Amino acid sequence: MKKLVLLIVVLVGIWLGVNYVRTGQFSFLPTALSGEEQHVRDLEKQIADVNAQMAQAEHSASLTGGDTTHDVSALMEKKTRLEKELEEARKKLH
Question: For the segment 28-60, what is each residue's pLDDT rounded down to a tens digit?
């Protein structure tokens, strides 16, 4: 009986993990996303990644005293471009 319960828990965990990798959400029955909705989610993730890279660059600069102006300015340009693209994608979605 314990093995059966353990097996069910493991299978549910695997199912949730697979759905999370596919959709980015923990759910038993994931909703199907349209191409535009997936594009919006991808852009949001890319912006979050750029923000994380900028924070890392700031942290590295504070520790080493190095100049990261060029790196951060390139990331800011990329972030601005992604935000404009995200705004356009959201307009198309709604």
Answer: 776 666 778 878 888 999 999 999 999 988 888
Angle between helices 69-93 and 35-64 (to 10 degrees): 160
What are the structure tokens assigned to 75, written together? Answer: 């990331």
pTM of structure: 0.62
Provide CB contacts within 8 A for 5, sequence distance 6+.
none
Distances (CA, A) of 32 to 11, 17, 39, 55, 86: 22, 16, 13, 33, 20
Q: Are 15 and 72 in contact (CB under 8 A)?
A: no
Q: Are 20 and 14 in contact (CB under 8 A)?
A: no
